[in-house]
Amino acid sequence: MAQVTFRDESASGRPLEEFTLPGLPDRITARELLRLRVREEVARYNAAPSPRFNGLVKPDDAEVELNGYRMRAARRIDWERQADIAERAFARNGFLLLVGDRQIEDLDESIDLTADPVISFVKLVPLVGG
User: Fold this and answer.
1) Largest CA distance in the chain
2) What pTM was computed for the model?
3) Does 96 or 116 have the greater pLDDT score?
4) Which pLDDT score is estimated for 124?
5) d(CA 10, CA 58)
6) 2-42+80-123: which CATH number, 3.30.70, 1.20.1070, 3.10.20, 3.40.1350?
7) Where are the domains of the chain?
């Protein structure tokens, strides 16, 4: 069984948040890994809902803040809905998924967690005026 560290980074590479999960399979697809990450962060939030959510993607009815999201009211979040939003964000280049120093470009790609235990999510900020 593998242990993985999920790390959020700014576009400049500055670490923002991170957490570690033990007991994962040695090989997993990027899609499964993404959904696992979202399920875990939502479970942590739902255990103690607050006005602020620090997650990969914005929940419905939340406002973007620096390195997180302000909830209009503390409430439970549906992890499956959040995981679907994360998959769509990945497809639109809303964030980069890095395993070690390699960028993952397809969610169906298999990842060896024993070789690369640090998974980085680099949130991209759209340019104003585009």
Assistant:
1) 46
2) 0.90
3) 96
4) 80
5) 16
6) 3.10.20
7) 2-42+80-123
Exposure on the CB side of residue 43, measured as CA atoms within 13 A = 8
> What would the two tokens of residue 82 be?
């959040």
| Residue 11 confidence class, pLDDT cut points 50, 70, 90 | confident
- DSSP string of the chain, one letter each residue: -EEEEEEEE-TTS-EEEEEEEEEE-SEEEHHHHHHHHHHHHHHHHHHS--SEE--SSPPTTEEEETTEEEESS-----HHHHHHHHHHHHHTTSEEEEETTEEE--TT-EEETTT--EEEEEE--PPTT-
Of residues 120, 122, 90, 125, the one with CA closest to residue 105: 90
Backbone angles phi, psi at 84, to 5 degrees: -65, -40
